[in-house]
Amino acid sequence: MAPMSVSLVIGALLRMLMVLEPQRDWTVLARVYQHLKRTAAPSCDKLSRMVPATDLFALGIRLMDTWAAGPPQRVNKPSRYRDGLLIALLISCPVRMRNLTSIEVGRHLLWDGQVYQPHFTAAETKTRRPYAASVPRELTPYVDAWLQVHRPVQSIALGGGQVGTGATSGSTAGAGPWAARRSGSRSKRAPGRRSVRRSGRTCSGTAPSPSWSTAPPSRSG
Q: What DSSP string runs through 87-156?
């Protein structure tokens, strides 16, 4: 077991024992835990596995630009485009996958007349802090293309029925969460070296599923 894992296990054991027998003195075990926590060194070098944010963003754009080169199955080509959009969005606006897959357009994804903006309330984030960001302007046509072209095709191919296709489609109901975890495998393979699982939030610091559950936001203002 890795040193960091050992310290985590001892810490969990200490907390459990303090709950089960709070009257006992666990000072010795607490000292052992603090020592292990302080001296434990990571067993893997995450920095060497990180991919520059610019490379991952370029990968996302490339997947979307070459979506037609994907497998011939009808459902796979939209999936290629979706994976590229996911990667580009996670690098541009790092959020947890739980938030990304729960996006509702008009509630979490807003259109301000110039760019798309993801918003989450404090109650919807793990850190209990509100989150707001702006999707890069260059991704606007890609988000529009997902909503208008690729998302409806994928929804029908997966048996989800017809969904709204226009960015001004009003209140047409959409499909369920869109972000299958395939985007992680693409981000690991394509750059030539493996990126860590939380590559969006981690790698975004290295450089300056939307099958959303409601209709696209109105672009009329």
A: HHHHHHS---HHHHHT--BTTTEEE-SSSEEEEE-GGGSTTSS-EE----GGGHHHHHHIIIIIHHHHHH
- The single-letter code of the amino acid at 45 is D
C-alpha to C-alpha distance for 106 and 165, rounded to whole angstroms: 15
Could you tell me the two tokens for 38? Answer: 């302080």
User: pLDDT of 94-151, one tens digit each?
Assistant: 898 888 888 887 788 888 888 989 999 999 998 999 999 999 999 999 988 888 888 7
Eight-class DSSP state of 216: P
Angle (CA) 154-107-62 rounded to 5° is 40
Number of helices and strands in the chain (H, E): 10, 3
What b/e readout covers 58-92, taking b as 16+ CB neighbours within 10 angstroms? bbbbebbeebeebeeeeeebbbbbbbbbbbbbbbb
The amino acid present at 25, given as its one-letter code, is D
The CA angle 146-103-107, to the nearest 5 degrees, is 105
Taking the alpha carbons of 207, 212, 217, 219 in that order, is the dihedral positive or negative? positive
Domain positions in the chain are 3-43, 48-206
